[in-house]
Amino acid sequence: MVPEDRKEAVFKRLVENVEVIGSCHPDTGIAGTRYLFDTLTKYGRADLAYKLATQTTYPSWGYMIREGATTVWERWEYVTESSHDHPALGSIDSWLYKALAGTNVDPSAPRFERIIKPHIVGDLRHVSASINTIRGQISSSRRREKDSLVLEVTLPVNTTGKVCIPVFGLKRPMIKEGGKVVWRDGAFVKGVPRIASAKQDDGYVTFDVGSGTYCFQLFSC
User: Fold this and answer.
1) Region for 23 from its dihedrals, namely left if φ exceeds 0, alpha if ψ lies in -120 to 50, beta otherwise
2) Nearest one of 207, 127, 123, 118 to 160, comparing CA atoms
3) Is the pLDDT of residue 134 over 90?
4) At what angle do helices 30-42 and 46-53 cross, to 10 degrees?
5) Is residue 24's pLDDT more than 90?
6) Domains assigned to the chain
7) What gap in Å lies between CA 73 and CA 51, rounded to an integer?
């Protein structure tokens, strides 16, 4: 909705509203909550979205949990007359799948191709998620280890995908799959079946893969 020449200014105002005015607490309703998380992530502030998601003081999802909630309320505050099992503010769950686990649909081929692009944020050390699709189950699991990042991905038969490994600004990242080097010295290393190619762009090394189960591991050379 925002003209191209005003997007930067509008996003800056949004960040200020969340970070400064709202002290990293959501103040959105049914419609705005979903787009707040998607927009922050799209324009490079997944870290701020994570701060919103993990607050434990009012208003927040953590506050609901702290007050004994086992489902999402209709409103941020506890009100006896309102619903205490309501999808209104539950749209955050799609962000957990898309941003933290990184499971996304490729808009150019939504039925056949997936983009696995996890965002590494805050103190979160492990994420695991799976989705049942028309072609089978897609799963993504990532964890931080002492000297590496591990990303495990499964794509069902007749599905292709792009697996994006964040490289954290490393000058010489090395990536292995199943113990075999597939990226070194800024270039793709051939040799692993079903991995066709790779390129580095915008803080990620992206691999074009076919169906199967993969275990990628990122190291710093």
Assistant:
1) left
2) 207
3) no
4) 140
5) yes
6) 4-94 (no CATH), 102-220 (2.60.420.10)
7) 20
